[in-house]
UniProtKB/TrEMBL annotation, chains A, B, C, D, E, F, G:
Component of the proteasome core, a large protease complex with broad specificity involved in protein degradation. One of its GO terms (biological process) is ubiquitin-dependent protein catabolic process. The gene is psmA2. Pfam families: Proteasome, Proteasome_A_N. One of its GO terms (cellular component) is cytoplasm. Coiled coil: none annotated. This is Proteasome subunit alpha. Residues 10-32 form the Proteasome alpha-type subunits domain. Belongs to the peptidase T1A family.
């Protein structure tokens, strides 16, 4: 109670620190990320796999319109968790950033550089008043000089590079699964399967192709490619995590 | 009580998250949508049907002036629920956006692109201080490359695509009716009838042509066409939901 | 008490919704309208009649200077209820809007278009912070392509079209009278008389010419014409609602 | 007590309405007007008379420097009640407005037009945040097309035209005197005398020339002319309201 | 207590009036003036005398650096009471204003015009938010067309003209002394002496030259001339108010 | 409790001092620095060593992406403690500052000048409202005219020069170790070793190469050089503080 | 308690006066000055001496980097007490001001003019909202037309000239010592010694050269010259206040 009152005294905006040096609004934005369904990224030796879980509101909704997986440039994909509208804004920022790079330097933007431009943009929303932080985390995966790279952006504007990472709902359990089963030498096919099994590990009822979207950027094509529903289903069958149709 | 006090501590503006990562002002704007009478959109195999319910304040009011159904471009219609004045502003935005597209690219704007421009505009009103969110949801229906498309925008600025959707008052019951009776292969005539029956399902007293406005964008004409009162009445008779005149 | 405390938590500005989706400041602005004396508009088959009641503060005040009835353009009149100074600002806006239309398109502005430009202006004062809503409602009556039209603007920025409408003090009772006695086929003379009788229905002591101002826009002249005191008196005598001189 | 708490919840700024549609800050500004000594305007058949009462702080103060009576243009005078510094600002506005009119149209500005420009300026300070309303009322008197006109501006920005009017301290009692004794056919000399007697009616001890300033705009000269102390004394003697020298 | 709570509800800024029409922040700024040591101005038949009392913080402080007496232009001096830094800003404003006048019109600025420019500047700090009022009063004395003039500016931005005036600490007692002993026909020498005796009337221990600064603008030279310490001492001796050296 | 309430009254923003002259928000930002893992700088006779400790969130995170050690220019390195995203922004500032210096003066920027430009930037975020202070401290080490220099910037914007310094978690204990063992004549190799032993002094379990990053700027090469994992491990072995692999 | 509550009601910003006319935020900024270690200025017949005490945080800190003594121009030095970062900003301002003067007028800026430019800058931070006052006092000493001058600036923006002055911690006791021992005819060497003895008077344990920095501007060289540690030690020995080395 005392602790809660203490917290409430310092959590009404991004322009104030709490006495113990915390920015509560940024921490609350992280909670907004946890409210979103999970997204998973896995780096393989020959590419990056991104996989997202979609919340199903009604059978009449077109699942394909639930935007959690995006192409930022030919060679970079982005998966999000948290506020969809906030994610859309950051992805617009990323796309413009990637295009400007192509125009200026006539080459694709590096995944790290792209990530850091995005996180710098996010940081400003945690220091200057008059706005709120972005309530979304992104996984930015792609190829940089032929090497697969996978980054996370969080609401504080900090970039992290990962071998495999889960964000959103039940992040901890999925991450634990990834830590137990990750293998740096896996192929991109195995990476997609790992991501699916990791997500399935927190869904005892199995997964349906409809609620899953997945994409890869492989070292050969250097292209962002979204999997078809049939391909997703095949992976689910192979991983033995296919749910009965809802 | 405790929960309500908790909520009240974080619901005075869009620039603060609650400790559990919610934006209460956006959620309250969704309540403003529910205060409006219902609007329904149904996608058929050959077009999109939009139908709106109008609140009758006085027999001396011209029902035609209750603006819930709008033409955004030749091939796109919009139905709204919630604050009428807010809807008008968004529809002005949509119309200008569609016109700019015609001028720049000499072709009609895609329904998805138009929707996303509108939702990006809405999102800004949920992140930058000094204003309130839009208290309105829109159904944007039309043809894109000959294909019927139906989108929803909500006060958070998230776009969703639907086969059939209800917004506004008694949304849940109408949506349940739509889920039970929707058929992807229906014609646009059947879509109008479905929407009427869905609305009637929450009005035991039946419906009058005066309180209903309906429009279609069909694949043949590719034109937004608003139904006449007589046409509406015919549908009501056919669907056996015609009320006694008030 | 509980309800009032609840309300007071959300009624201090236009940039916050209440938990049930209301904008209290806009609702309070509607109360400001009700504090003003009544104004009435009646559409006839051959024109529009506007009639206003003026509060008498002192016999030394020039009643003609109580501004409730205005000419917006040759063919459009405006009657207001609520804050006089706010009304003046909106009417300035309407006049400039009408003049710009004449300059650009070399034709008189439509009554509907004029109304919607005004309501769009009003809406901005209900969404962007740093100001209050307009505490005034307007009746905008005139001719559009030879047809009489009568619109209302309210503090939320919503436009409505009416056959006959009362705003301001005792609006409900006057509106009830209008609903009971309105006839679409009436002439403009009968419309003025109806408005007078409707106003008199809430003033048992009768009406004096001094407290009344009336104007018409008829289909023949297509001109806004304000009635003289003698003409008003004649109507009062005819309608048998002339009060003893105060 | 309850009522006062209610009031206090809505009276801290001009950007919020109270639940009953009032703008308390504007009403409090009217109180600021009442704190000022009285000013009186009387319209005669051949001109306008303005008269002001000056508070005497010390015999060493030059009464002539207490600014309550101003020339706005050759043919227009202004008397104020309330905050002197606020009045000065509005009169600067009025003077510039009158000069601009002469430059643009090569003719003197109308008294009504001048008044309405001033009230429009005042209104902005009652709707847009970041400032307070003007704590002053003005009486604007002069000639328009040879006709005497007398206007009042109040802190809400509403213009009123009067035959005779008192503002400031003890306004009600003075106004009652004016209502009892006003005669539309009086000459400007009689108007000055009426104003003096009206002011004296609330000062049993009589009036001294020092505390009075008076000015006229007569139809013949069409000039604003301030009375000398001797002329004022003569009027006081004639009206039999001359006080013993303080 | 009740009264104090009432007051505290309305005294946090210049943009709100209290229910009885007062601007507490301006009144508090007047208290800041009273916290300053006294300054006195006396108008003689042949010039103006300004005299200031300086607070002595330490014998090591250079009393000459305590800025309470300033030359605004060749023919105008200014004495202040209240916040020294605020006074400096206003005097900078006055000096620039006087210089601009010389450049534009090639003649010295009038004392009245200069005063009113300064008070207009002060008024803005009492109406527009985001700043506080000036916590200083000024006495502006000089020659205008050969005539001595003496003005006061207060924190509300109101200008007053005086024959003799005291501002700052113990203003009332000194003013009473001035009222008892002022003579319009006195010479400027007598005016300096009167000011000194008036100040001494509230300092039983007498005055030292160090704590006094005095200046005159006489009709002959039309120059602002500051008295030397010796001259001040001579006046003190003549007036028999010389204190023992501290 | 009393003290805490006192503190809470003045700690909500950088624009207010507490009664005892403190800026709590700046002090809380210092707490944010202490929440970060430690960073250490040691000046040797022939260069500067920087060493940082990295928090390990998951074995799948790429430790190299935890940004605590940066190259600001060829001859200057920066180690940070506190908010990573804030540090990134300051380092961007420092890099641009260094580049501008090279462009303008065609020579490398001095370490002191660079530090002071950064601290000036930080200071503005402690005085002007609308933002929060930077929640990060930096160690800026490099060569200036061949001489090794080591500076600290703190959240108040004050620059300090050090021989050896620790910032972040357990700063006091590490600093005590440095004070006990620092030798001005040590070589840069010894400086790296000292930093490692100082960090190990607060980690009884020893250190792993993965959690350590280190860099030097030596007087010979005048280049910022980051140590490889193998080099770090060698130092750890030599200092006998190598932990068992986690 | 009552008094404290009273105070707390008016001390949250520079834009509000307290009922007794005080600006608490400026007074609290003066407390920030007192939190700093002492600085002393002494004017001699042939120059000015500045002396500062430095707080020792760690033996590893370079005392020379504790910035309390600055050269503003060739002939002007500045000593500060209070917030170091705030002092740096004011000194940047002073340096630019001095340089601009040299460029414009081709001569060194006067010490008084420089001081007043700085205090005008400080004053703005006490009147316009959105920032806090500067939490620092400065001693500005130098030569003006060959004459030694010594000024103080305080957080209110008031300039004072002094013969000898102490600011910062234990200001009162040091000032008392100065008042007892100051001699206007002393040489600059004696002035340095006086400042040292005055500082030593509040440090029974004596002083070390490390914690002292001193500078002079003498009439012969007209140059700001900082004393070496050896010179400081010599003075300490001469004044018999040398402490045992810490």
């Amino acid at each position: 109670m005392q602790g809660q009152q203490q917290q409430q005294a310092y959590d009404r905006g991004i322009t104030i620190f709490s006495p113990d040096g915390r920015l509560y609004q940024v921490e609350y934005a992280r909670e907004a990320v946890k409210r979103g369904t999970a997204s998973i990224g896995v780096r393989a030796r020959d590419g990056v796999a991104l996989l997202v879980d979609k919340r199903i509101r009604s059978p009449l909704m077109e699942q394909s319109s639930v935007e959690k997986l995006h192409k930022a440039d030919d060679h970079v994909g982005v998966a999000s968790a948290g506020h969809v509208a906030d994610a859309r804004r950051l992805i617009d920022f990323a796309r413009r950033d990637a295009q400007v790079n192509r125009l200026r330097y006539e080459e694709p933007i590096g995944v790290e550089a792209l990530t850091k431009d995005v996180t710098d943009h996010i940081q400003q929303f945690t220091q200057i008043g008059g706005a709120r932080p972005f309530g979304v985390a992104l996984l930015i995966g792609g190829l940089e000089n032929g090497e697969p790279r996978l980054y996370e952006t969080d609401p504080s504007g900090t970039p992290y590079e990962w071998k495999a990472i889960a964000i959103g709902s039940e992040r901890s359990d999925i991450q634990a699964y990834l830590e137990d089963h990750y293998d740096e030498d896996q192929t991109i096919d195995e990476a997609v399967a790992l991501a699916l099994r990791a997500l399935a590990s927190v869904h005892d009822e199995g997964l349906t192709p409809k609620r899953i979207a997945a994409a890869t950027v492989d070292a050969e094509s250097e292209q962002y490619i979204q999997l078809t529903d049939d391909e997703v289903e095949e992976y689910l069958v192979d991983a033995d995590v296919l749910a009965d149709e809802e």
